[in-house]
Design goal:
The complex is a heterodimer of chains A (about 300) and B (about 400). Chain A is mostly helical and about 300 residues long. Chain A is built from 13 helices and no strands. In chain A, helix 4 packs antiparallel against helix 7 and helix 7 runs antiparallel to helix 10. The chains are: A mainly alpha (about 300), B alpha/beta (about 400).
């Protein structure tokens, strides 16, 4: 017995014991809560959870609801633009910052400052800036341009992009800092080599530097993606979902039905659909990312 | 030195003695606009003066749709406040059924609530299986059109006396650079205005047919179609009113930037805070100047079940206090709402409140929409109207078809 190798399970005992509370929390709160929510999405619970199964009724109603469909479409558009613009703006800012400029610390601080504000504060500030009666439009008009119109939050067709301005303003700083850290991690020798070979700087960025920054990009992707799926407070602070349904989001639908409409079943069904959508993206990614390593 | 010690000792003793009897009663509500805050301060003052307990104000900013989820999650989450506001109706129905609310029947019987409360439908809304679970506080009605005299003077036309005249006056106001109709861009205000039109411009049977009997045929019928056409007119008239909250919209009327607003009688408090006189600076038209019928909604206080005996006793004292004639008068004058007792003398009431009191006394009050439909249905109707008012490309016919679908599934 004593000659055999110690069981893997009992190696590093103290670390494993220390992790038990966290594992329990994760299992009970996250996994348990998720299973409970999915189970109750098949009931007709109203204000309080009640175990009265109604099959797929809640899901049928959900997918018949115009507001839900509009929310999904909005999230998709918002997500797509947010993802691309965050990457582009964050990377370009970082690349500019990496040119050994003067006052880099100052600029970096200024860029990162918006991230210190919560979405609610960001949203309120931008709601004021974009309000046609006392924001940008009012100021430009009072300078003499009477016909100047800039009221994205009050025009249904472009309200979503108005909301996005605030999101980008708040989040770009963080992406920039992450990218900058990635750029600083690139060995200077590579730059020297590319210069010796006479490769233009943009080509070096696109074909050499960016592929080398893959881990940073993946971290950033996870951060941006999670902030997109859970977008709620930014919308509430800026437009409250309006004008009309033009900036409604799935997370807001869930909240409104859970609490405002006192219809837990419908809210649970919507949140289950959100979970499903996240899993569809996360599972293939996780398999590629973590499953791939065994082959190496 | 000994002096100071004696004083300190005495203070400590006082504090201890005070703590033994007085309870701090946390009361949550969403009365945060100027007129509302002044009214709730009257309740706090009366409670602090007449009992040895202390009112701890738990105002939650934002409208009821922000505050109610917070209140409900505190009650269901095991951290109940001592008392909380809800609207008359079904918002707290399931909390009562789950046994989370305190039974007030003994206090109601001692105060003879059954006899004094008018209209009795308000006490019915508090009653589940013959037991009383809430204390009605005030009556609010939605059916009011508030008109700014200044706006009409500036446009050089007389102040309208009916809805039709109001609609007809819109082009003249727009020409004078005014917003013909102020409307906050929130679903509850827009669907509220629609419900006002149903009750005010059509016979009451239609209102009851749609909301009480949930009859989808009536909802899809030609009479309701007229109301959707009127709502489309309201959409056109309010397209320049870029405000969200109801009191911002009321402020447009107060300052004369907008001609009028359909809003419940709680708007009255805002006019009062602004120092305006009914009949001189502004006009109120009950029932849009057409059908003088009111939906009696309003606020009631609910008392969650608590373990602490002192707090429970204090809850009872508060419930009784809310229905006392003096409290009713002091609160309702500031709030601009009507008292739930038919027997109090509201001599200090202004023109608008007197018009409301007359209608109540004549018995022409119908139950509020919130009493008739569930929150689930209410939210769906609000969604429809928030979309309808924001998007001029939705025709009244399409909106009516969707409305009839919601009524068909309503509970």
């Amino acid at each position: 017995m004593s000659a055999s190798r110690p069981n893997r399970l009992f190696r590093n005992k103290s670390a494993k014991i220390a992790a038990i509370p966290m594992i329990l929390t994760a299992m009970v709160v996250f996994v348990g809560g998720t299973i409970w929510t999915v189970a109750y999405s098949f009931t007709n619970s109203k204000l309080l959870p009640r175990w009265k199964l109604v099959g797929l009724d809640q899901y049928e109603r959900l997918w018949d609801s115009r507001r839900w469909l509009v929310s999904i479409e909005n999230l998709f558009l918002y997500g797509l633009f947010m993802l691309v613009l965050s990457f582009v703006i964050g990377f370009v800012l970082a690349a500019l910052m990496d040119q050994k400029i003067r006052f880099e610390n100052t600029f970096r601080t200024i860029m990162l400052y918006p991230f210190a504000l919560s979405f609610i504060v960001t949203g309120l500030v931008w709601q004021w800036i974009l309000n046609p009666d006392f924001g940008v439009q009012h100021i430009v008009r009072s300078l003499g341009f009477e016909n100047f119109t800039f009221d994205p939050l009050y025009t249904a067709d472009i309200a979503l992009y108005g909301v996005m301005i605030a999101g980008l303003w708040q989040g770009s700083g963080l992406i920039m800092v992450l990218m900058l850290a990635g750029l600083r991690g690139i060995d200077q020798e590579i730059w020297k080599a590319s210069r010796v070979d006479g490769i233009p700087a943009w080509k070096t960025y696109v074909f050499i530097i960016i592929p080398m920054m893959k881990p940073v990009f993946i971290t950033t992707l996870v951060l941006i993606a999670s902030s997109i799926v859970k977008v709620y407070d930014l919308i509430v602070a800026q437009t409250g979902g309006g004008p009309g349904l033009s900036t409604e989001m799935p997370a807001k639908y869930v909240y409104d039905y859970l609490f405002g409409a006192q219809n837990l079943g419908q809210g649970f069904a919507a949140s289950t659909m959100m979970l499903l959508a996240v899993l569809v993206v996360v599972i293939p990614w996780a398999m590629l990312e973590f499953g791939g390593k065994k082959r190496v | 030195m000994t002096h100071i010690r004696t004083i300190l000792g005495a203070t400590t003793a006082l504090c201890v003695a005070g703590a033994a009897q007085a309870a701090d009663l946390e009361v949550t509500h969403w009365w945060t606009s100027g007129g509302e805050a002044a009214a709730v301060a009257e309740l706090a003052k009366a409670f602090d003066a007449k009992t040895e307990h202390t009112w701890v104000d738990g105002a939650i900013a934002g409208s009821g749709s922000t505050a109610r989820p917070i209140m409900i999650s505190r009650i269901t989450g095991g951290d109940p406040m001592a008392a909380t506001q809800f609207n008359h109706g079904r918002q707290a129905e399931e909390l009562v059924e789950a046994g989370l609310m305190r039974d007030l029947t003994d206090i109601a019987e001692a105060g003879k609530w059954r006899e004094v409360i008018n209209p009795p439908s308000l006490l019915d809304a508090c009653t589940v299986d013959g037991r009383v679970y809430c204390a009605p506080l005030n009556i609010h009605s939605w059916q009011w059109l508030w008109l700014s005299h200044k706006a009409y003077e500036d446009a050089g036309i007389p102040v309208p006396t009916t809805w039709d005249e109001f609609v007809a006056a819109a082009p003249a106001l727009a020409e004078a650079g005014k917003i013909p109709m102020a409307m906050g861009k929130q679903g509850w205000q827009q669907s509220g205005a629609f419900n006002v039109m149903i009750l005010s411009l059509l016979p009451p049977e239609v209102y009851l047919g749609v909301y009480q009997d949930k009859n989808a045929e009536i909802a899809a019928g030609p009479e309701v179609a007229r109301i959707f056409a009127a709502a489309a007119a309201a959409r056109e008239m309010s397209k320049d009113s870029n405000v969200q909250d109801w009191n911002q919209a009321t402020n447009l009327v107060i300052t004369g930037q907008a001609g009028g607003q359909i809003m419940g009688d709680w708007a009255q408090g805002e006019f009062q805070v602004a120092g305006m006189t009914a009949g001189e600076d502004y006009t109120c038209l009950p029932g849009l100047g057409v059908n003088k019928t009111l939906q009696a909604g309003g606020d009631a206080f609910y008392f969650p079940v608590l373990d602490d005996e002192e707090l429970t006793a204090a809850q009872g004292e508060l419930a009784a206090l809310l229905l006392e004639p003096e409290t009713q008068v002091a609160f309702n004058l500031k709030k601009g709402s009507l008292p739930v007792r038919g027997d109090v003398d509201l001599e200090a009431a202004n023109d608008c409140m007197k018009k409301g009191l007359e209608i109540l006394a004549s018995g022409d009050a119908l139950p509020d929409v919130n009493i008739l439909i569930s929150s689930d249905t209410r939210v769906q109707i609000e969604e429809l109207f928030v979309e309808f008012f924001a998007d001029a490309s939705i025709t009244p016919e399409d909106a009516q078809a969707r409305y009839a679908d919601i009524i068909a599934d309503a509970d």
